[in-house]
Amino acid sequence: MLKRISVTELLEGMYIHELCGSWMEHPFWKTQFLLSNPKDLQRIRDSGIRELWIDTSKGLDMSSGQTLEQVEEETAAVLQVAAPRVERRRTDLDEEIGRAAKLCDSAKAAVVQMFGDARMGLAIDVGHVTELVDEISASIMRQPSALISLARLKHANEYTYMHSVAVCALMIALARQLDLDEAQVREAGMAGLLHDIGKMRIPSALLNKPSKLSDSEFVTMRSHPTEGARILLDSRQVSAQVLGVCLHHHEKVDGSGYPHHLVGEQISLFARMGAVCDVYDAITSNRPYKAGWGPAESIHKMAEWSKGHFDEQVFQSFVRAVGIYPTGSLVRLQSGRLGVVLEQHATSLLMPRVKVFFSATSKAPIAQEVIDLADWVGRDKIVSRESAADWGFRHLDELWTGMPAR
Ligand SMILES: [Fe+2]
Ligand SMILES: [Fe+2]
Prior knowledge:
- Helices cover 47% and strands 12% of the residues.
- By secondary structure, it is an alpha+beta fold.
- The protein has 3 domains: 63 residues; 230 residues, Hypothetical protein af1432 (Orthogonal Bundle); 72 residues.
- The strands form 2 sheets. A 5-stranded antiparallel beta sheet has the order 3-2-4-1-5.
- A hairpin with a 3-residue loop joins strand 6 and strand 7.
- Helix 6 packs across helix 14 and helix 7 packs across helix 11.
- It is globular and about 60 Å long.
- Bound molecules: fe (ii) ion (2 copies).
- One fe (ii) ion binds next to helix 6.
């Protein structure tokens, strides 16, 4: 039986099933193992992970802890609160996708240039990316899913740069969802673009290491927020808000983050926004040693961790901005059809537009058709999120981008 327990309750002899947190934040290759080494217990405590799943059929049991059903109920409640929303009419996904793809390419080039300057110790010029942030903002305004979802599809070797573009786009969408004014939306985008600039002070070999980091490498990697803040301070071109996101995007509301172990509202609103956007893009992205989780699976995991890890209000708004089943999610409908999510519905995240293409019942392709689940109320609905890898769908993204894989 699976049980979720607090790290403080973890004992040797327990069988670890899953650590509750982004895999980028802990040094374990495998998250399923029998805890038999006291050093591993200490490493888990040091990693900032606060909760984990144990399998009581494979190791020591204990009386407390939450069952799968209890956690599932809690997680569903978090997502249910976010489901209703109000959105203005905008451009369709297929209309925006071409423009967003070009914008993604030019944004990546600008980040490569700016981060390259930082790596060489040159002063960075923030002025020339202001226009870029405005263009990204305009694309998000027309259709948020296009750029956000394209930026998720990054190659492992371009991770740091495309991650910056993705977090910029997510910050803009979240700032709009929070009804911040235009000047604040721009600042949020700028903060997203620059939040990881401190990684340019991390040796390239470590940054691009095609495997898990060692404990000491983790310590080096965790210096990037303070290094980044130094670079931005030297540039004298960014606001205190942007600087704050750079320095505090790895803080968690329960105080288990870094570098300053801030708690709750000690962390600025912008940095709390940055933390959510950063984790979503990190866990949905492919790394050399691990394929990213699907977007719906990632939202579900984050909802499960949200207490303690994220500001709950900010997380709810984030879900309203990207969806419970974000663009590109593979879902199963009650009719047995499998489809990929295209766009979100204006008022309910549970009824997105979906392109159906496969029958889970007959295990065979079916004629592709775009259906608006809002028109199917009472006749069909989403019953589960599915894993594209488990189904062997290697070209799922081509179905919603309309473009061959990059
Ligand atoms: Fe970071
Ligand atoms: Fe990041």
